[in-house]
TrEMBL record, chain B:
Keywords: 4Fe-4S, Electron transport, Iron, Iron-sulfur, Membrane, Metal-binding, Transmembrane, Transmembrane helix, Transport. This is Cytochrome c oxidase accessory protein CcoG. NCBIfam families: ccoG_rdxA_fixG. The chain crosses the membrane at residues 46-64, 93-114, 166-185, 201-221, 343-361. Residues 264-293 form the 4Fe-4S ferredoxin-type domain. The gene is ccoG.
Length: 306, 482
């Protein structure tokens, strides 16, 4: 016996019942209850709509490219138009920034706000990998959110740093100093750091001056070769030994000892500290003058700009 | 309901046949049949018009002025919502959720007490359909004439009547859409800009959609909307209970139905229902109220008017169809309104949401402050030995004037606030961000975290002081164990 047995409507066993004439198992039949009329109309309308859509928009995958559609719309075109619109909005700010210095931008709250928002992306793309998303630094890479600047924290110095990069040098003292001298100096650096520069031992000060450290780290060991009357300074990137901020992590006696023994960026010393910031300006880097100006404003505002 | 019985001994599957019989009995209008309801006057018809007139607020509201401005204006481009002298910003939108809660519960409480009054008296679908069919009756005549015209071949006369009807329908649709848009822009200006092609593109699209929507929904879909589109009709079953009063046919009184006969002294054998079918004739959704509570009934109560008129004529008491609860109909004791726990729960929720809205509207502060604590880094050590935290202040100025906002921070005796030496200029009706730093000497820090209170204040041109505050946190290194 077939699973599905149908009887035709002309010998319907249940006449006048509004069934479709399909009967199963003697008495189970299919009633004719069509969907509401509006639903069917919507169904047909949506088919018509699809036909219209496929004529106007890219639809049928024929060949390598789908049919282009009469309107010539494409996602990438819409994206490009969107970019154009936002660029047009930005242009008024970009034009103003172009004619101003970083200091002038910092003095204008509106422009500063725009520049910070715009430079956030630049910072993320170019700086955050080493200096952290918020300028919090990483082991070996200085914190940008504090006010301890190896090369100076004025807008001019920041621009100089980003434009040309930085690479300092500190000689390795393993062959120059005795083990005892290194020990004394390392302890002295720790004392200086912990006391704000007031508690360095006499022996340490004597060695600091006699062995030539003073030439780069400065008379008061604050990393400034010459302090200028405007608050800025001339320096060669030597660390400030008077504050609690360590250039190389984790800081403390062992860190100081290592740096003294092997120096910084010494070619022939495998254990040497590496401290290189690449140049970001075109053509060596990829940042335009405008980009660098924005980044200067951004870094200056991170928390330690001078 | 048909009784479902199965007899294992019997070869006749009674249950299945009963199901088919019921399905056949309940004819469903899926849109193939146009309902031409008879219009009669009466008490409920009057109430219906009075209730429907609430929609005049929708049509005329945008033209009410207040202090030289539109009294109620939902200014979406500027994100400002003006309600008479109050301006609400998106930041105050928690009140909207309370408002929605209020109306949702109001809908539930009304349904629980008196059934679908919303459907029958207030719903735009009902009201607009009512107006559309009123126009139809003015132009084409009573139901019989309308059916005749529907069936008649197209003629000059039919074309003329139909053109006027559809023109008026479209005009009402247009007014509906235009009034909607008028709540979102300056209404008198809209009349000018709309017809000179200067209005916003969104305004034209909205008006076209509303015109088409009103025309189709009230002109053609009508009761089909209530049957198949509206979810509310479907969920009402869980809102009604035995004590809900709804338009009900009193079958104990009415059955068995019978035509009025000239009684010859003897007792009447039939009930009060004279089977005149007037209750069906006046029903805008085409249902038969005598079959009991059903999904198609929008409780518009027009059948009450119809039945009362007939009862008056045949000299029987009114109220064969009346607002009654199931309890009343079945002769149970009906509990008083205030003795039903349901009423109290609803009233409590209504009261809470309403007082929340009132609190919100009366305590709209002119200034609002949010403080975002920088997390990368949480803190930095400065070269002078102090610990510095960075904060972004988001100052919301809700007034109509620029305010110079002064910032203070408290929470530690030795703290220094940097970056807020000058007052911060804030633009009206917007958020101004500002970055500030707080420094505390390392030695003075007792805990890894401590609260910092930011206070802002500004002088308004009226001489009033606007002020607010927000707590944040100051994070430092872990104190050394010593």
């Amino acid at each position: 016996m077939p699973l599905l047995e149908t009887t035709m409507a002309d010998h319907d066993l249940f006449p006048g019942e509004n069934n479709t004439g399909h009967v199963w198992d003697d008495n189970i039949r299919e009633l004719n209850n069509p969907p509401p009329r509006w639903w069917m109309q919507g169904f047909w309308l949506s088919i018509i709509w699809v036909v219209g859509y496929s004529i106007l928009y890219p639809t049928w995958p024929i060949g390598d490219e789908p049919t282009p559609g009469l309107l010539g719309w494409s996602q990438i075109k819409e994206y490009e138009q969107g970019v154009e619109r936002i660029e047009a909005k930005r242009a008024q700010f970009e034009d103003q920034i172009r004619n101003l210095t970083a200091d002038q931008i910092l003095a204008d709250p509106g422009l500063k706000q725009y520049t910070l928002a715009s430079a956030k992306v630049l910072f993320g793309d170019n700086c955050a990998a080493c200096h952290g998303s918020g300028g919090q630094g990483n082991p070996g890479y200085p914190v940008l959110a504090d006010d301890d600047w190896l090369y100076g924290g004025t807008t001019a110095k920041l621009a100089e740093t980003i434009t040309g990069g930085r690479q300092s040098l500190m000689p390795a003292h393993k062959a120059i100093l005795t083990e005892a001298e290194v020990d004394t100096l390392a302890h002295w650096v720790v004392q200086m750091n912990e006391t704000g520069g007031e508690g360095g031992s006499e022996a340490g000060w004597t060695l600091f001056k006699a062995k030539g450290c003073v030439a780069c780290h400065g008379q008061t060991a604050n990393g400034h070769v010459v302090d200028l009357p405007n608050g800025d300074f001339i320096g060669v990137g030597a660390a400030n030994l008077r504050d609690g901020i360590w250039r190389f992590q984790p800081g403390g006696y062992e860190s100081a000892r290592h740096t003294i023994l092997y120096g910084v960026n010494q070619k022939d010393v495998p254990e040497t500290r590496s401290a290189v910031m690449p140049a970001f300006a075109e053509p060596a880097g990829k940042l335009s003058e405008q980009d660098i100006k924005k980044l200067v404003v951004y870094v200056h505002s991170l928390g330690g700009g001078m | 309901m048909a009784q479902l019985k199965t007899d294992p001994e019997s070869t006749t599957p009674v249950a299945v046949d009963a199901l088919y019989a019921e399905a056949d009995d309940w004819h469903v209008n899926a849109g193939g049949q146009t309902i031409h309801a008879k219009r009669i006057t009466g008490r409920w018809r009057t109430i219906k018009w009075a209730m429907a007139s609430v929609w005049l607020i929708y049509l005329l509201g945008p033209y009410v002025r207040w202090n030289g401005q539109q009294a109620v204006l939902f200014d979406i481009p500027n994100r400002q919502y003006h309600l008479f002298s109050v301006t609400v910003l998106p930041q105050d939108f928690w009140m909207l959720s309370l408002l929605l809660l209020f109306f949702a519960i109001l809908l539930a409480v009304m349904t629980a007490l008196v059934g679908r009054v919303w459907c029958g008296f207030f719903c735009f679908q009902t009201v607009w359909t009512d107006i559309f069919t009123w126009i139809e009756e003015r132009l084409e005549g009573p139901p019989a004439a309308r059916r005749k015209l529907d069936a008649a071949p197209m003629s000059r006369e039919k074309l003329k009547v139909r053109a006027i009807k559809h023109g008026l329908w479209l005009l009402i649709g247009f007014l509906t859409g235009f009034s909607f848009v008028a709540w979102f822009t300056d209404a008198p200006t809209l009349w000018w800009t709309f017809f000179t092609g200067q209005a916003n593109g969104a305004a034209y699209i909205t008006v076209v959609l509303f015109t088409a929507g009103t025309y189709v929904l009230a002109g053609f879909l009508r009761e089909q909307t209530c049957f198949w589109l509206c979810p509310y009709a479907r969920i009402q079953g869980v809102m009604l209970d035995r004590s809900t009063i709804i338009p009900t046919y009193d079958e104990h009184r009415g059955e068995p139905r019978g035509r009025v006969k000239h009684e010859e002294g003897g007792e009447r054998t039939s009930g009060d229902c004279v089977d005149c079918n007037q209750c069906v004739a006046v029903c805008p959704t085409g249902v038969d109220i005598r079959r009991g509570q059903q999904e198609g009934c929008i409780t518009c109560a027009l059948c009450l008017d119809a039945c009362d008129q007939v009862m008056d004529k045949v000299g029987r008491p009114r109220g064969l169809i009346r607002y009654a609860s199931l309890d009343e109909l079945e002769g149970r004791r009906t509990s008083r309104l205030w003795l039903r726990p349901r009423v109290w729960v609803y009233v409590l929720i209504l009261g809470l949401s309403l007082s929340g809205i009132l609190y919100g509207l009366t305590s709209l502060a002119p200034l609002e402050l949010r403080v975002l604590h920088e997390r990368a880094p949480l803190f930095v050590l400065q070269s002078d030995g102090s610990i510095q935290n960075k904060y972004t202040l988001k100052i919301l100025n809700k007034t109509h004037e620029s305010l110079a906002v002064r910032v203070r921070a408290t929470g530690h005796d030795d703290l220094t606030l940097v970056g807020a030496e000058q007052p911060i200029a804030t633009a009206p009706g917007g958020v101004t961000p500002a970055t500030v730093f707080v420094r505390i000497p390392h030695q003075a820090l007792k805990a890894e975290q401590q609260p910092i209170l930011f206070q802002i204040e500004a002088s308004r041109t009226t001489g009033e002081q606007a002020a607010t505050e927000r707590e944040s946190v100051f994070v430092g290194p872990k104190p050394r164990p010593d």
